[in-house]
C-alpha cells in the first residue's frame, strides 16, 4: 500500500490556513518537533479560557479505544475546535468492532474535531493502520530536512534578536551534524541555539562564535584526521586517536565513521568527473555545499581508481574486524597508513 507522507512545511501551511484532515498519524522520534506542532495547534485553535473542555490527551498505555471514539463525536464546548491527541498503543488495541466504529467516524468526521495519533513506528501491516491512512494524513517527525532546518534556525535566532547570514547557518548545521548524526535531534539543536544566544546577547552570529560555543564532534575529528593525512602530517593524527580512546570511543565506531567519510569523498569524486559547480554537485550527491568546499581538496588528492581501491579495502577490513579476525584498534591504525599512500 503506497502511503503519501505529508511534509512538515505543508502541515504548517495547513495549520495556518485552518485546513485539517479527519485524522493525522504522527510518526518518528523527534519529540520536540511533535510537541512544537501540537503547541502551535493548541495556541491557534483553542481558546485558553475553554481549553480544559476542548483538549483531550490520552497517553496511558491501557486505554479503552471506545472512549476515544466517543470523544471524537463530542462537539466543542464554548469554542470552535476540539483537539484529541492519543499517545498510547491505540492502533494495536482495536478489535474488529471498534475498528469498524472508527472507520464509520472517519467517513463522516466532525469538522470541529482535530484528531491526532502519535506512534513512533506503527505496524504498517495492521488493518487499523491501513484504515487510518486511507482517510487521513501521515506526517513524519523524524527530523527536519535542510530547508526546514535552515528556516527553523533563522526564525529562532531572529526571535531572539540575533542576525545570521546563510553562510553562518550552513556552518552551524555542519558543526552540529544535525543532518547526518543519529545522536542529534531538534531539542539538542535548540539547546545549542540557546547557548549561542546567551553568548551573543545581541548582534550577529559568526563562525568564530560557533566554534567557541559548540564543541567539535567525533565526525569533525574524523575529517580532521583525513585532512592531516592528505597534507602529510601523519604525526598529527595520533593525539586525536589517543583522545578518542581516552573518551571511551569504540575503534569499530570510529572506523565506521571513517568509511562514511570515505564514501562521501568517493561519491563527490565520481560526480566531479562531469560536474564542477558546487550547487549542482550538492544536488547530485546529497552533500551540502559547505562540506563539498572542504572535501574537494581531499578528493583531488586521490585518483578515482585509488579511492575505489581504498573503499574496497575498507569494506574488507570492516568485515574482518567484525568477525574477529583483526583487532579493531590495530586495524584502524593500519588502514590510516593505507590512506597515507595516495597512489
Break the fold down into its secondary structure elements and pairings.
Layout (H helix, E strand, L loop, with lengths): L4 E2 L1 H10 L6 E4 L3 H15 L5 H4 E4 L6 H8 L9 E5 L9 H12 L5 E6 L8 H9 L1 E4 L5 H13 L3 E2 L2 H11 L9 H15 L2 E2 L2 H7 L4 H13 L6 H10 L4 H22 L5 H8 L3 H12 L3 H19 L5 H13 L3
Parallel strand pairs: 1-6, 2-5, 2-6, 3-4, 4-5, 7-8
Can you offer a commentary on this structure?
Helices cover 59% and strands 8% of the residues. The protein starts with a strand and ends with a helix. The chain is elongated and about 70 Å long. Helix 4 runs parallel beside helix 5 (96-107), helix 5 (96-107) runs parallel beside helix 6 and helix 13 runs antiparallel to helix 16 (304-322). Strands 1-6-2-5-4-3 form a 6-stranded parallel beta sheet, with helices on both faces. The protein has 3 domains: 5-140, Rossmann fold, CATH 3.40.50.300; 146-213, Orthogonal Bundle (Helicase, Ruva Protein, domain 3); 218-340, Zinc Finger, Delta Prime, domain 3 (Up-down Bundle). It is built from 17 helices and 8 strands. The longest helix is centred in the C-terminal third of the chain and has 22 residues, at 251-272. The protein is α/β, with parallel strands linked by helices.
